[in-house]
Amino acid sequence: PPPPPALPPRGCFSAGAALCSSRPHRVLKIPALRGQLSSNVRPHMDDLTGFQLQERGDRVEAAAALLLGRMQFEFSRLDVALGLCAVWVDGGSNLKELTPRVEAMSFHKKLEFVEAGIERRVRKGSPSYKNYKAWIERAQAARIRRNELVHGRWYVDPVSEEAVNIIGLPTSEEQRATRYRLDQLEASLDELRSLQYALSKLRQQKAL
């Protein structure tokens, strides 16, 4: 049977550069706050009361939590799309045998299984081969980013309007923190949607 229908593209699919940036965001992103101020004036932090800072942090936290929740939905859809790609390797000739095997695989193992199918089924150096390999690389990066977002702990910096993800225990010398603006989290969400759409298109052009 043919691959599942392609998903319509949504959002920004060239988000890689935004994901790598660590430059603090200096423009108000919270609509309710932006509307209270001149577009050319940012209040000095000393002018904000503790209540205003708390309110500002709550708004950033609510927006970040919504984006992170949506990422879980999109990652689960991507996981299913990858699993279906895996069980249909070799034209679905081993569908019954592969289904329970693939169901037991992690996302990482599914990627490795599909990559092995690419090496076996797609001519090296062809456009399809290059496109599949580029997709695998993007999916690996999205997997690593998603794992950090899910398994780290969070706090909000109301001054910079960033959500901060911390990996490691407070007592660990390996503890590290990554700061995210809301537009960076949205770019991560868009990338998960883009990966689903791109995989569907690849399978239509060259089934494994």
What do you see in this structure?
The chain has 208 residues and is mainly alpha-helical. It has helices spanning 16-20, 31-34, 50-87, 95-103, 107-121, 127-151, 182-205, and strands spanning 153-157, 162-167, 176-180. Strands 1-2-3 form a 3-stranded antiparallel β-sheet. The protein is elongated and about 65 Å long. The relative contact order is 0.21.
Brief rundown of the structure:
The chain is mainly alpha-helical. It has 7 helices and 3 strands, in the order ααααααβββα.
Name some characteristics of this structure.
208 residues; mainly alpha; 3-stranded antiparallel β-sheet; 3 strands; 58% helix; elongated
Structural topology:
Elements: H1 16-20, H2 31-34, H3 50-87, H4 95-103, H5 107-121, H6 127-151, E1 153-157, E2 162-167, E3 176-180, H7 182-205
Antiparallel strand pairs: 1-2, 2-3
CA distance, first residue to last residue: 12 Å
> Largest sheet at a glance?
3 strands, antiparallel
Strands, total number: 3
H/E element order: HHHHHHEEEH
Question: What average pLDDT do the residues reach?
Answer: 83
Question: How many helical stretches?
Answer: 7
| Class based on secondary structure composition and strand pairing | mainly alpha
Strand content: 5-15%
Give me the Rg, rounded. Answer: 21 Å
Q: Report the helical percentage.
A: 55-70%
What would the principal axes of the Cα set say about the shape?
Answer: elongated
Strand order of the largest sheet: 1-2-3
> What are the segments in which pLDDT stays under 50 over at least 5 consecutive residues?
4-42
